Structures are given as C-alpha cells and as structure tokens.
Amino acid sequence: MKDIQEVFDKLKEHSSEQKQIREEYKDALFQTEDYEEIKEKIEELTIRRKEIEAVVQSRMGSRWNKLEDLKNEITELKQMQSDIAMSTLMAGKNIQVKDEFDNVYEPKFNVTFKKTSAKEITPLEK
C-alpha cells in the first residue's frame, strides 16, 4: 500500500493540472463567437425560470413549506445517523441497517483533509 503522503501529493499534483486545463478550456470558450451570446440567453432564461418557480411555490403555500421542513429534517437525521454510526464503530460494534424489504445497508465512510494553520499535528497519547 502506498504511503498516505505520496497519495496526497499525487492528488494535489493532479488537482493543479486539472485546474490549469479548466482555465485553458474557459479561455477557449470565451474566444468562441456565440458563447457569450448563448451564456446571456441562459442567464435570462434562468431568471425567468426562478420567477415561475417562485409563483408556483407561493401557490403551493403550506405544502411548499412542508417540503422545506422535510429537507431540513432529512439533513439533521443524516448527520445524526452518521454520528451514531461513528460512535458505534468506535465502540467496536458492527453497523448495519435494513429497509422495509430486508435489504441490508452497511456504512460507507469518506475521509477528506482540510488545510490547517498547524505545521504538524501531534499524535494523541494513550
């Protein structure tokens, strides 16, 4: 298995190259004749779409508000589910849930890294 630092360095290198290629792509788009004109039309249509959506949302009234409430509650429940799963995993227990059809679900964890102001993170002592 590769060292995590090697993988991190390669990821940063690829991300940097990807960013450079995207910039080249944007420059090429702006040099195309119709691109700006089409982009402006899309912005106008987007504004019109949002106006229509606002009218429909106001007509729906409490049902639209219920949708927004459900969206917020789902976000909170997902966070709670994640916290419970991590606590259960840290306790050394098996984690799984089942749906109404007895399909078994197992957790999928994703690790990301966030830049810090520290030069080095000291390991936790036991």
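^ that was protein a. below is b, sequence first then the tokens
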Amino acid sequence: MATYKELKGTNIEAVATDPTYPVTGQVWYNTTSNVLKGATGSPVESWSTVNSINSIRYGMGSAGTSTAALAFGGNPPTGPAEPRYEDLTESWNGTNWTEVNDMNQKKQYLGSVGIQTAALSFAGQASPITANTEVWNGTNWTEVNNMSEAKQMVRGAGTSTAALGFAGYDATARTANTETWNGTNWTEVNNMNTAKYAPGAGGTSTAAVSGGGNAGGGPPARTAETEMWNGTNWTEVNDMNAARDFLGYSGTDNTATLMFGGGAPYVGLTEKWNGTNWTEVNDMNTGRGNLGCSNSGSPSAALGFGGYASTGRTAVTEQWAGITIKTFTDS
C-alpha cells in the first residue's frame, strides 16, 4: 500500500504553528491547538477576472498585495509613436482602481518593490535609460539617491527601505548586476550567475529568488533558469517548467513564490515555487506578459494587472485564489 508521502509528496508533520504557505494536499498536526489540519484549493486554485485598471498599459512598476496594490509608470496607448512613457499612479482597494498622485519621472520597464503605502521605484526606460529612484509614502513620490547603474527591465525583491535590485538591460547589453538598497543608498554586491533581463522575482533583500528571464545567446533567448540569493551570493537551482520572460510574481518568501504570465507568445501559465521545485497550476484567463503584480503578496493570494496580450495592451485585472487551511474533525 502506498504511503501518504508517496501519494502527496509530504509527510504528516507535528508543528506548533501552521505552515505559512502550504501546498494542496499537505496535512499536518498542530500541537498548539491539538488538531489535524490540511491544505486545499478554495475550492480550486484559480484566477478570476475582476475590475480593470483605469489606464491600459504595460511595462509598469507595481507593489502591494491582492487586495491593496499600486501600479505606476508604464507604456500607455497614447501619442503618435514610440517611445511613450507614463508617470500615472493607480491604487487598488480590492475592488476598484483609483488614480492618485503621479511619479516625478515618466518611464517604463522599471524595477519596483514594496506595499501600497510604501513603495520603491528604480531604474527603467525614460529618455535615456535611467538610474532614477523614487519612494512612495502613500500620498506622494519623492526622488532619492540613484542606483549605481542605469538600466531597464530590472527586477526587485524586498521593501521600500530594504530592497534588492537585479538583472536588466543597460545601455548595451543584458546585465547580471545586483544592488542592495538600505533606505538611503544603493550598493553593488555580487552579480547573478547569468546576465538576463525581465525575470520573475520573490523574497527579501537577503533571501530572494529569480525565475526565468531573457538571457540571450540565440533562440530561444528566454530561459527557465532559477537562481536563489542568500544575502551574499546567487546559486543556480532547479529550473522552471517553462522558459519565459516578463513574468508577474507574488511572494515575499524565497521558498514560496507564485509566477505567472510571460511571453511572447503571451501565456497565462502559472507556476508555484516551494524552495526546491516548480509546480504548474491553473493558467490566467488572459495570457499576457510585462504585467503589474502583487509583488508583496503570497502564492495563495495574488493579483495580475495590465500588460501586453496577443491583442495588444490590456487593462484586465485578475485575482488568484489559492490555498485554504481546513481543520479535520471526526464528524
């Protein structure tokens, strides 16, 4: 007879507190409440389409969670020709998007971290590529000290006062450059193993994960490579199931992150990272890349908005409903 671990891939463990990001089918005994618990989808892990963002755009910065998010910058469908950059900021309250105060600099392909009331924007494509950094305090944007390197399509992890910025495209090529932000200044630290732009991200300034991206080297340029940051160095770990760039992502833990979308071709593919392996789950309803996301959310509750789909720029917003914890009873 097969064991529970053979069937589900996890043991039934005795723990004092419920796991932060359990996986579907995981069962544990909580020694504090003295009950047996398990994780299930709610009822099935899936994406639901909700109210659209007001401004159709892609390549924006984003911050927050599935119920309290921020979107800023990007590339809107206005003007006679490229390039066209945006400084517009919108706030999401779990139901609707509302315009709030603009950024100081118009740009797209920017790095971003933080929450709805405390966000950080860094680098991006303006005219020309910029190292500009701005901090959002819940009401206004303020320019602060620049990154060490100007670049676009950069990614980040962490908070507005303790962030990691990595990857991107500088004036001439893909970069593996990594910098840390301490709330005042950026400092260059050890590079990634592979130069790339537009990977997915998750975690903190001292414990981050990067998945996918565009590494060049001829077709296909997109990669499935995953790297983990331990505060000092990047280490290559198990690849994603599908190579792609310009992903959305949700997660502040480098051992539990959701990554979704990407392209082109534009996909709604969604994968969950558990610190060791990637697992494919249900796709988004609208496949797209270069979208905004709940980068301070979780793998259990995520938000994806805007981006570029097969039909062009989109304003579609989707919410991810993930794991629910259930208590087992004898009734």
